[in-house]
Amino acid sequence: MAARFTRRVYIGDTPAEAWHIHNVLDQHGIASELRNETLFGATGEIPVLESLPEVWVSDVNSVAAEALIKEIRSRPEESAEWRCDGCGEAVDGVFAICWRCGAPASGSS
Fold first, then answer.
1. What phi and psi values does residue 17 have, to the nearest 5 degrees?
2. Beta-carbon neighbour count of residue 7 at 10 Å?
3. Tens digits of residue pLDDT in 38-94
4. Could you tell me if 44 and 77 are in contact, meaning their C-beta atoms sit under 8 angstroms apart?
5. What is the C-alpha R_g of the chain?
6. Strand duo 90-91 + 82-83: pairing
7. How far apart are CA 58 and CA 33, in angstroms?
8. What pTM, to 2 d.p., does this model score?
C-alpha cells in the first residue's frame, strides 16, 4: 500500500530549501512528498502562499518529522573541520557525516 501524505510539516522559502528538508527526512527513513515545487516560478501570478514549496508526510511520521525539522533549523551553523573517528578523514564542519565512510561526527546523534 502506498504511503498517504496527509500532513504538511514544512513550507520552504525556495524549492532548494524544501528539497533539503525532504532529503534529510529521507535519510532518516521518513517518507515525504514535495508539493508546489514547480509553482514557485509563478509567484506573483498566483498568491505567494499557494506557490511556496511544501513538504508533506504521513500522519504516522508527522511527529518525528516535525521534531527533526525543528532540530535542523535550531542548529547553529558550524564551520570547524573535524576528523572522522572511523577513517581519519578531515571533514568540513558543515557536514554531520563523513563523506568518505559515512560515520557520524563525534557527538552527533
1. -65, -45
2. 17
3. 887 787 788 877 889 999 999 999 999 999 999 988 866 656 889 999 999 999 888
4. no
5. 17
6. antiparallel
7. 9
8. 0.64
- Determine the 3-state secondary structure of 55 from DSSP: strand
Beta bridge partners of 55: 10, 34
List the helix and strand counts (H, then E) for the chain. 3, 5
pLDDT of residue 78: 55
Report the alpha-carbon distance of residue 82 to residue 67 in Å, rounded: 26
Go through the domains of the chain in sequence order and give each one's CATH number.
7-74 (3.30.70), 78-109 (no CATH)
How far is 91 from 20, CA to CA, in rounded Å?
Answer: 20
Distance CA 55, CA 34 (A): 5
Burial class (CB in 10 A: 0-12, 13-18, 19+), 103: middle
* C-alpha cell of residue 23: 532529503
